[in-house]
Each structure stands twice: as C-alpha cells, then as structure tokens.
Amino acid sequence: xxxxxxxxxxxxxxSTGIFxxxxxxxxxxxxxxxxxxxxxxxxxxxxSDIEIRKSKAPFKKQVLESRHRASFRDYAxxxxxxxxxxxxxxxxxxxYFATIKMKNKSGKYESYMxxxxxxxxxxxxxxxxxNLGLDRFHSLDGKAASKWQPxxxxxxIFLKFEKRGLLTYSDYLLLTILLSIPERNVRIGFKLFDLxxxxxxxxxxxxxxLVAITQGEASMLNSHLKNxxxxxxxxxxxxxxxxxxxxxxxxxxxHRLQFKSLLKESRSVISEVDFAKVVLGLxxxxxxxxxxxxxxxxxxxxxxxxxxxKEFLDFFRFVQDINAMDNALAFYYFTGAxxxxxxxxxxxxxxSGVKLSxxxxxxxxxxxxxxxxxxxxxxDFNRMRRQWMYPVPQxxxxxxxxxxxxxxxxxxxxxxWWKSIRQSPEFTHFW
Length: 431
What we know:
Blueprint: H1 5-23, H2 25-32, H3 39-44, H4 48-56, H5 59-87, H6 90-97, E1 100-103, E2 109-112, H7 115-122, E3 138-139, H8 142-147, H9 158-161, H10 169-179, H11 183-193, H12 203-214, H13 225-230, H14 240-262, H15 272-280, H16 286-300, H17 309-320, H18 322-334, H19 341-351, H20 358-368, H21 378-387, H22 400-414, H23 416-423
Parallel strand pairs: 1-3
Antiparallel strand pairs: 1-2
Keywords: Calcium, Calcium transport, Ion transport, Membrane, Metal-binding, Mitochondrion, Mitochondrion inner membrane, Repeat, Signal, Transit peptide, Transport
Organism: Drosophila gunungcola (fruit fly)
GO molecular function: calcium ion binding
C-alpha cells in the first residue's frame, strides 16, 4: 500500500491546482474566455512566472526576494526538523542527525553520531548542516577513519564511552532514555533492575530491562556505554551511587554543551529570548510560542543581564524533577493558594535542592504567566513536564482513513474559493 502514496500525493496536489484555478473568480472568468492558465502547467511549471517577473525586476528587488526565499527555506527546514524530533521514530531521528559513516569492527559500514550531532538531535531549532540529512553522511574509508579526530575536549564524558566520542544507535537511544528519567525514578527503577536483590545491577539485568523498554530496538551489548559502566570485561556490577554520579555527569555535560551552542560572539551569558526558546521547546503552538517570546523580549530585551551557565544548569535540574514539583504544587492548589515567585523558589529548594535566582524566576514567570497576573497555573507546569520527558515512540503505520482526512484538511486550507464564498455578502444558503 505504501508504494501508492507518492502517486496519491501527486494526484492531490494536481487536483488542488485544478480546483483553485477553475473555481476562483479570476480563474472562472479566464476559463470562460479561454485565456486560462493550464492547471497542469500550474503544477509542473509553477516557477516559470516567478522567473519571468524576476528577470524584469530591478537588482535590489531581486536581492530582497532572494533573502526572503532563503529565510523562508531556513524556517521551513527548522520546522520540519522540530516535527522530526517530536513525532518520528528514534531510528529515523538517528539516521537524520548522524553525520559519520565508517566500518565497524566486523568490517561493515555503520552510521555514527558525534557529540554535536547528539546535541542537535535533542535541541529544538538546531539545524543540521547543509548537504547532510536523512541517510546522508560523511563516508570515511579505513585511512580517513584512522586520521579522524574528535573536536571535543579531553575531559568530555563522550570520550570515556569511546576514544573518538562516536555514538551508535544503541548509545543514542540509551542516552535519550537516561536524560529523561528523574533521580527519584532512577532510585525506584534501580531496585526493579536488581533482579537478584544484592543491591547492585549487572549488565545482564540492565540488558533485560533495556530490551523490554525499547522492544528490541537497542541493546546494551551493542552500546559503548557497557565498557564505561561495567568494565572492559563487563564483569563488574554497578551500584546506585555510581549510576547517579554517571547521570549527573551526563546531564551536566549535555546541558553545558547546549549552553555553549547558544552563546553569541564573546559573551559569557545567553539572552533571555534564547533561553525562552529552549524552554518552550517543541510542544507549544506557534501562536503561544510567539506570545511568550514577545513577553520576554518586552521585559528583558533592553537589559543586558542574560542567563548565566549556572542558572541554565539549575533550571534543567529543576525541570528534571518536575513530577515531584507538580505533586508539591498540588497541595498549594488544593488550598487555593497562589504560586508566587517566593513560593516557587521555596518549593524548588525543598523538593529538588535547587536554589533558583531571582532573575531566573522572573524569566520563568514571564514565559509561563499568560495572563500577566504574577500567577503560574498548574497546567503550565504539566506542559513543561511533558516537554522534557523523552518517551520512546513505537512504530506506527499510517491508516488509509487518516491519510484521507489529512488530504481533505489540506485541500480545504489550500483552495481559495472556499474563503471567497464564506466572506462574500451575496452568498445565501440553499435551504
């Protein structure tokens, strides 16, 4: 069935062009006078009229059009990549953002992620480099692979996994899962992993749980993390303290790299607007995202204070334990108390051990206070909690009914004559 989707898509696009040409007012008059534009040429040669107009336009107008086209292309690519991060299966996300392809120990070509690739795969708005994308890599032969050097510093945690810092698909999937688990849940899950009850976890016990979570998509035995966690012979066990220390180091490394990627020029802080873009992430609608960014820019745009690296790391420690934070906030909401800035800082200090600064608290309130009444609603925290949880999606096949609904919705939004009928004052109902 999937082999017919390209044909159905081309048919839908052609039908939309035909209907919009015939049923619009100008198109209908041109059709009657036989001076119409051919619908098929409209679909197949849509850029011909634009090229003719551009050849007659002055040079300055051509430059403006090219800039607009470039900015629109950049915006469209960023939106596509954000949807990819949010809805696609992890295997497709890995194939899109991975940039290295070389032979593994068995002599077969395998794709790998660099630490920068991994950061782009989880950071909203971070664009993939040009000429790289889905199943498009830098292929390295044996000689080039031996000369390839990582760009990370020597104390990076990724170099502890593998000497060149390269990540396999199993590494990517395991790291994504670990970044989304709060510390409280790790302590509970560690007891569940411990099948024999000795207080430690072996590689076989962790492998059993990982295969169950990912439904066979990833294996601890194929991951570079096994040597870092269980030794070169995979014979030693892992305690809860060692595992929590590893998670803390991983979170700090990833968010520090994310902070450095947002730095501009020689500044040591990032702007409040850039911080708000990271906080809003993927799951917010375009209108709500635009309103929140406007509030932040209006309040902090003229200031040069910014967000420091410590505040950036404190925020991610704060949202990492957002489930416990939501439970603490529930007691305030049940009593009818409002969540003020002092209340939020107190809850953050008691529950997660993070002391939020006054400036960081003001920025958080500016982002989530939609009514500008200095009160944050509980649903805003639930939205934030869903944003920073990284579930492992399962494979889903597109049903025919869903495809037909999508086709009708796109046709309704594309055809201009529906809008002209609804806005025309001369239109009357048939009944």
